[in-house]
Here is the input.
Amino acid sequence: MSVQHLPYTQEVEQATADVYARIKHIIPKIEWPIHAPYIAKINELKKERNAVILAHNYQTPEIFHGVADLIGDSLGLARMAAETDADVIVMCGVHFMAETAKLLCPEKTVLIPDVTAGCSLAESITAEDIRKLKQQYPGVPVVTYVNTSAAVKAETDVCCTSSNAVKVVESLGTDKVICLPDRFLAHYISTQTDVQIIDWQGQCEVHERFTGAELREYRKTYPGIDVIAHPECPPDVIEEADFVGSTAGMIQYVADNKPEQVVMVTECSMSDNVAVQHPDVNFIRPCNMCPHMKRITLPKIYESLLTLTPQVDVDPAIAEKAKLSVQRMLEIG
Ligand code: 13P
Ligand code: SF4
Here is the structure.
């Protein structure tokens, strides 16, 4: 998609002054003329289109603080999508998040500014793989991470996210559950419950790169540091962490504990975004970037709202079954 260049004018400077005041300690002044024209235009277009912009916690600060109406983890974004009365939802996140929003709101226009924003977990499993597993383990319920396609969700009993996975597994009342597709999340669940977990070999290409040894180095260099990690990390990282939780759970941890120094063992943008609210906390920032999340940019959001493309649609043959698995999760909590 060729993206229009928008000029930085005095009018734009004034219209975005309050946004810049909030994020000036994380976005250098020299970069502002690049972002500000898009922020001003997107915020105008949103009103004209009766659109709401949902942004995942891994979006860049200029998106997260500049144009997002609602921000959150995967569970929060699904809930907000289900509740909005806007006509158009712009999902600043990855494709499975937009697809989940469309499942929950089939009558709305759901846009994803870059349709190629994927996820290594969603890529790791197909609907056919699940059908085979169900034959292999007859009667064992299937819990699927939302980081999957709608076709996979349609073969699923109930979805989960990193913030409710243990609760969802235990809600089923069985002694065995198939948990897909993230093997590290499945391992983490197995350490928190007596239910036997059958896993799959999917991994997040971002979180798999962290190591326990790296975290021990942070503890040596920054004595007293709080180490908080996402459950998609490998087991040696989880063992080293003071707290394990979803992206929203990690943000809550910082708000509740106000650590002097903290390392968030997750995607790069998290610390930048959270630092805006916590200028007194020293964030040590290991940077493993999610290339899929970073496909979403302000110029692409602008083009998407202008043209109302690319729209996300779900095959009607699978939509109803896939929606049920997400709704069951939302009912559990
Ligand atoms: P959260 O649900 O914790 O935000 O995780 C989503 C994700 O893609 C993490 O890599
Ligand atoms: Fe997928 Fe990992 Fe990127 Fe999250 S961080 S969207 S799990 S590849």
Q: What stands out?
A: Residues 57, 73-75, 147, 161-162, 204, 230, 232, 246-247 surround 1,3-dihydroxyacetonephosphate (ligand 1) (CB under 6 Å). Residues 32-49 form the longest helix (18 residues). The domain at 207-284 is CATH 3.40.50.10800 (Rossmann fold). The chain has a mean pLDDT of 97.
